[in-house]
Structures are given as C-alpha cells and as structure tokens.
Amino acid sequence: MPAPIRLRELIRTIRTARTQAEEREMIQKECAAIRSSFREEDNTYRCRNVAKLLYMHMLGYPAHFGQLECLKLIASQKFTDKRIGYLGAMLLLDERQDVHLLMTNCIKNDLNHSTQYVQGLALCTLGCMGSSEMCRDLAGEVEKLLKTSNSYLRKKAALCAVHVIRKVPELMEMFLPATKNLLSEKNHGVLHTSVVLLTEMCERSPDMLAHFRKLVPQLVRILKNLIMSGYSPEHDVSGISDPFLQVRILRLLRILGKGDDDSSEAMNDILAQVATNTETSKNVGNAILYETVLTIMDIKSESGLRVLAINILGRFLLNNDKNIRYVALTSLLKTVQTDHNAVQRHRSTIVDCLKDLDVSIKRRAMELSFALVNGNNIRGMMKELLYFLDSCDPEFKADCASGVFLAAEKYAPSKRWHIDTIMRVLTTAGSYVRDDSVPNLIQLITNSVEMHAYTVQRLYKALLDDISQQPLVQVASWCIGEYGDLLISGQCEEEEPIQVTEDEVLDVLEGLLVSNLSSPVTRGYSLTAIMKLSTRFSSVNRIKKVVSIYGSSIDVELQQRAVEYNALFKKYDHMRPALLERMPIMEKTASNGPTEIVQTNGEAEPSVVEPKHPPPVGQPASQGNDLLDLLGGNDVPVIPTTMPTKPASAGGELLDLLGDLSLGLSLMAFYLFDLSKTVNFLSIGIPPMTAYNKNGLKIDFTFERANPNPNVAVITIHASNSTEADMTDFVFQAAVPKTFQLQLLSPSSNVVPALNQGTVTQVIRVLNQQKQQLRMRIKLTYIHKGSAVQDLAEVNNFPPQSWQ
Known about the structure:
The protein has 804 residues and is an alpha+beta fold. The chain has 34 helices and 11 strands.
C-alpha cells in the first residue's frame, strides 16, 4: 500500500478547493483512505493519519472513528505518538463517552513517567477532559506532582488540580498543604498557576476562604515586588513586569478582602500604589488599573481610595479605545449607587459619551446618565437627555423615553416643568413611549388644577402641528374634551392666550376621526371628547350630527360608543350635564389596584378608571395591604369596600341606573350596559349558599343576575351573629382572580347584632365575561367581646347557575 500523503500536503490540497463541494469530495476521499489504513492496523503511519484526522475535525468534519486510534497512540512508547494521541483525546473525547475511561491507566503510568514532557502531556489531558471518576482515581498522582521540585511539572499540576477540584470539590483538602507552599516559589509560571488554584478554592469553599485570608500579607508582598522590581526581559510586557500575574493576584485579593475588615486594611496601601504607579499609556497598564478598580470597589476600602478608583474610571472615559470606555461606563454604573457624589464629578464626560458613534457605549452612557439624575441637576440632565432623544436611533427611543418619564415623576421641580417635559417626549418620540404614558399624563394633568388652561392650550397647538404621534393626540383629545371651555375662554395666565372658536376646535377633533393616521383608540378618544364638549359648547346640533354619523361606523367599538351617546341625547338628555361633567382628581395607586389605568395605544381601549374613595369609618387604613396579604401576592384585582357617593344632580338617577359602577375615564364602561333598555336585576332561581360559618358568625350568599347583561352576577351577603354579644367594626372584604372584575358596595351597617336579631347586608357585583368558574377569597375583621378577630376563607363552591 502506498504511503499516505503528509499533513502539510493535505492542507495545501484542501486550500486549492474552489467550492465547498470540491472540498467535501477531497475530505471524503482522504477519510476513506484513513479508514482503510486503520482497518489494516498500519502502525507506521497511524500518527500521521490521526494528525490529518484532527485537522479535518477542526474544519468541522466528523472524525469520531479515530477515537480508538488515539488511545493506541497514547499507549505507544514513542513521544511523537503520545503527543498526537493525547491531542486527539483532548479534541475527540469527553466524559460523555465511556471510551475515555480506557485512558485512565495510561494516564496514571505517564504521570509517573521518567520524562517530564510525557508527564506534562498526561497532566494537560487530565486537566482538559478528565471526568469525575478519572479525577478521583488520579488525584493522588496530581498531588504528588504538586510537591515535586520541577517547576515545569508544578505549574501544570496546579492547573490540573483546578480541574480536579471543579469535578470533585470534596478532594479540595487533599491539595491544601501543597498549595500553601506554592506561593513561596520564585518561578512566575508556578506563582501564576498557584494563584489560579487558590482563587478556585476560595470561590468554592467558605472554609478555604477563611483559611487563606492569612496569606494576604504574602500576596501583598509578591505584588509589591512585581511593581517595584526593575526591568526583567523574561516577564516584561510593554514596560510592565508580568501584568498577567498582577491581574491574577488582584482578583484573588478582591475575593479575600470582600466583607473582611482586616484583610481589606492590609491591602489598602498596595492598591493605592498600583493605582498611582501603573503606566496608563499602554493597554496592559489599563488592564491592571481596571482590576485594581474592581478590587477597591469590592473590598471594604477607604473612602479616598474609592474616589481614586472612580477617578481612574473617569480617565478611562477619555481614552480613544472604545472597549476601555465601555468597561468604564459599566463599572461606574455598578458603583453609582454607593459612590454617587464621586461619580457626579464626571457627569459632563459621561454626557459627552451620549454622542459616541458606538451604540453599546451610547446605551451604557444613557443608563448611567439616568442613574445620575437627582433633584439638583434635573433641569440640566433632562435638557441633555431630551436632546439625545431627538437625535438617537429608534432602538434607544423607548428606553430613553421611559427613563425621562421616571426621572421627571421623581424629581420634577414644578408641575408645569413636569407637564412640559412629558409633552416634549410625546411630541418627539410618541410612538416609542410605554403603554401607560397616556393615562399617567392624564392623571398628572387632572391633578394639576391650576395648569388646566395652560395644558389644554399647549396640547391644542401641538395637535395643529402634528397628529402622527398617537399618544400625544390621545392626551390632547382627552384634555380638549375635559377643558375645552377654558380653551375657548382664553383664561391662560402662564402664556399668551390664543383666540379659538368652538367650530375650530370641533374641526380639529372631527379631523382626527377621519384621519388615516388615527388608531381606533384615538378615534374613541376624539368621539368622547366631542361628546363631552356638548355640555361645554353651544354647538350641540353639530355634535349630535357627528355622533349620529358614527352610529353606523364599520369600527364596532366606535359604533357602539356613538349609539350609546345618541341614546344619551334622545332618552337621557336631562342627565347629560351631570354625566359629562369633569373628571374628579384621580389618586395614583399600585399597578394592580382598582384605580389602575391601562392603555395599549391602539391595541385595546383604556380600562375603567375608578376614583378612590376614603375608607369608611371604623375601617383600618391598611385595608389595601391586608387584602394583598389575603391574596398572597399581587396577582388578583381587588376593589375595597367604599362608601356610596351620590352626586347632588340629575345624574344621580343614571348612576343608580348603572348601579354605581364607574363610568370611566371617557365613558369606557358603557359597553357593560345597553342604555336603550331599562337595567334591573332579576332573580333567576339560583340557590343560596353558606359561604362562612364559624365562631357564631354566619355569611350567606344570595344571587341575582343583571338584566339585560348576563355577565354581571349580583351577590348579596347576609351576615348574622348567633353569639350573645354584638360584633362591632365589622368589615367584609373579597378578592377574585384577574379574569373577573369585582365591586363591593357599602354595607348596611358595621355592627352585626347578637342572637340573630338582625343581619348586615352588602352587595357584590362580579363581571365574568369569560364565563369561568367563580372563585373568591374573603377576609372578615370585627371586634367581639373587646377582642379583635380576623379570619380568612376561600369560597369555591358557587352554584353553577351563578357563573354559567
């Protein structure tokens, strides 16, 4: 059989291939020749064939059929065969394949070989792909080589010991005596690997960490010698003595000093020396300084040292290397919470990084800029960030707008500034803002009573300039509907009032209804705004005409809204002024509370917004928190018991008609009821049930169904007391899953009479649009015989008729 081609010739041949198919053909042909050679047990060229096979494996072609040949080469007595065999084992074998266990005996023999290079090959292979079984069997041999006087073997044995500890952590103590002696070695290679081994042991075992803390002075001495030593050509890199060893020692010191006062004190001086004496003109010096900064920030260092570290990061921001600027921004972002004032000194440099061409640097600079915002610099920082928002790429706009909203809400110096800032964001990046930005701004405007005239005038001007930003158009429509009379009257004191007629305002809103840029939600806002203006403007006939036109709209939501508004004009016109009066001031609550405002900017309509009433007399102020405890989290909507509020106007009849359900931000709840029919509640033969009976307190539920809306179940609770003493300060609370909407009306009394001489009744309304099985958790609190009583219960046995 002719001799196979050499590896060099194979590489040259493969490189001449012009196409992938041609290369595959060459590889397949050579693999076939190698297989034939393996089958014939050709020992002469086995090493050459395995070497070629490894090259093909590196190109991505399958080479698993050469695994056993690697084992044969390892068992050979020739060093060249062993070298290729061990290399093949490291590339082709891993611990998932049982064949690797066949190597264990060969590796053990080679670890005791008389030639250091063969021992080194065995150590490298064990440290690269040794399984936990192999590590257990060979750990003793590795530990013996750690104690040898040969520095070549000691450094390889130390790295192999790292792998053994990762695979079998319980063998860590075996290497403890030998590891302590490694630090006294003069050879830098051994020192380097010993520090790596110490680091691994400290990271994996708190006991080892405490044990090795006494080595801090020795590590400090080694690091000091490296800094103060003169030029050494063997270890010099760009004028710095062995920067790799310095970095490793600094990382180990960071682990040893974290959370320990004595260790941190021992290394403060050397860290200051490294920070001040390291040359920064080369990248090698910057790497050491970066590790020094991380160590200073992690240990309990002195305040002056921390300021020095932050100043180093500030110098990094001026470096031409983008990677150095990026790691500086990332490190400052981690330390800004603990060393805020020191980072603030570099604010201008950080803001300049917003103009960097690199997107990753811009993102880090933006995040850090928002972290630096406080009450003192809010105006200046917002000016820079708003400029960045105007010019940044679309991928940054959403995060930047969100950050501006949060910062303005937290640090706004005045309500006018707050409103102007949010409007500026909506004007420039309205399509990228968070879903809750519209209701949040509406709430801000509603609560700023003195700014209503100024805000509606600014928003009206913004509408004239641009109607493409849907969130801005929605807020403007809402404000014009609420405060259109202020716009017409020209009562703005903050800036020069504009002269606007009723027809001009209605023209703008009607333009939004027909614009192709308007989303369905925006049209809903506009139609509701026009309806609200029917009580503020004199052009009622024009408004009636617009509303009637949209009664046949192809958009079902808009059509239903228009039909209901027409019903208001025709059947309930006497109630219209009270119904369409201005919204009350809204109090912001937690995200899952009953006054949550949800807006999805074009995907769905806003949820019902319900103004929060003060808790009734005798009800604890922590009712909301207690109910969250009752639910075990924030995953279900809760509406607490509220006192009834009846407006002293003709609208009271309609509120009675709707059963005190919230009418929402812009009559969004009309879909619950059809105003063309009379709403009443009919008993439909649902059997009553006992929901609670304990300690003399009995809670019965009776059921009715709202007509004509069968999705609303009306539950009346009847609380009776069979004990000899009254139950006072009685409070009933309930919660349902998110798929339901629940409303608790006020109870008939907060005293449950003794001896069943009377009952306390309370009405619960549950909207179950998905017809799911009703589940409810209840919480009862009352005072009985001078003692406060609190109990929880879960009600899951509702009659099917109550929810089907």
